Amino acid sequence: MNFISARITQLGGPEAIEWVEGDVPSPGPGEVLIEHTAIGLNFIDTYHRGGLYPIELPSGLGLEAAGRIIAIGEGVSGYHEGDRVASMGPGLGAYATHRVMPADAMFKLPDDVSDDIAAAAILKAATTEGLVERCADVKPGDTILVHAAAGGVGLIMVQWLKAKGVRVIGTVSSDTKEKLARNAGCDLVIRYDQVEIAPLVREFTHGAGVPVVFDGVGKDTFEASLDSMSPRGLLVSFGNASGPVDGVNLGILAQKGSLFVTRPTLMHYYMTPEDRSAGIARVWDMLGSGKVKVTIGQTYALRDAAQAHIDLEARRTTGSTILKP
Ligand code: NDP
């Protein structure tokens, strides 16, 4: 069997992704060996590759993947060879044909969720689940703003919110993305590459503003997010696609309406076995029932991961992207 795995020995641009070949690793005690069938691309992979999120070098890359268990280490119970599973960390190394993982970090795939969909969505849908179901207090009838609504997390989040009876305003930067966001259910789509966000949000909400903003864009949308909110609203700033938000004077939150801001990360919503199994059960329910349909906008060969990073960072991708081993 051929084994290849991405390796980062120096932080940098997409060219920093190197490939190592070798023997397929063996699982140790408590571990399983997965043969990947699909790997999910995430914006966070670019933060690891470039150093925005610190990693120890040398390092693997990638968090999200699906495949089949092909070997089981000592002491593992509850798994069999051939089981279909997906993972979303811990640790980096999903950009590989095979991966040894702790058995308790794996999620079994239900029959109604394909490998490609699981790889395209487990991390992004779990992020959505944690943010929509547990981080913010989202109520039916609310109007909520979602930035980068046609991205991987964005398209999933829009549909998840619609399934909860929310009116959704989405921001996007192209005609194609505008169509995708509308098809996902956005009630209003704002072309934030062309117009100011906050005045249109105010107009749509008859001046009130929105009680919650989900913002994975970061630096470029931070001010507009605050300006779009109703008093005591919550800004969920969960990513940095345009760069990190820094140097904030907290007084601005008072001036703009006694606002709340949180900067959550998925890991803190999936810390306990109870949180993990309840969260993932909601994810499989949303994906399996078709309430959330995952759009795989692009598929690349695993070896073309660098090109996938170039396209993701250039805003050329839509929905989720998978890499095929
Ligand atoms: P996306 O597919 O959403 O890609 C990012 C999108 O951001 C782009 O398509 C683009 O959409 C928009 N964008 C706006 N400004 C820029 C810019 N300057 N450069 C590049 N893109 C820009 O990525 P993901 O679905 O993988 O992730 C979405 C966000 O969710 C990321 O910020 C990521 O870090 C975050 N995230 C956070 C997690 C957490 O635990 N906190 C977990 C998982 C993801 P457009 O062209 O329409 O503007």
From TrEMBL:
It comes from the Bacteria. Keywords: NADP, Oxidoreductase. This is Quinone oxidoreductase. GO terms for molecular function: mRNA 3'-UTR AU-rich region binding; NADPH binding; quinone reductase (NADPH) activity; zinc ion binding. Residues 12-323 form the Enoyl reductase (ER) domain. SMART domains: PKS_ER (SM00829). The keyword Cell membrane does not apply. InterPro entries: ADH-like_C, ADH-like_N, ER, GroES-like_sf, NAD(P)-bd_dom_sf, QOR-like, Quin_OxRdtase/zeta-crystal_CS. It comes from Altererythrobacter rubellus.
